[in-house]
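Entry type: protein chain
Record version: 2
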Amino acid sequence: MAGTAKRTITIRLKKGTIACPPNQRACVNGLGLKRREQVKTLENTPAVRGMIKKVLHLVEVVSEK
C-alpha cells in the first residue's frame, strides 16, 4: 500500500481521572494522556477507537483526518 496516508485522530483530555474506575484510568493512560487539557494525535485504528469509546465522557475528539 504505497502512497496511502495514515489516518489520524486528535483527542484532548477534558476531565481528570481521579474519580474514575481503574479500567477507565488504564484506557486514558493507554491513549497517552496524563493530565487535563493534554492533546494527543494518534493513528486511527479500531483499538484506539475502542479505547476512546470507553472514556468518551472524559475525552474530546478534536479532529479526524
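Comment: The chain has a mean pLDDT of 91.
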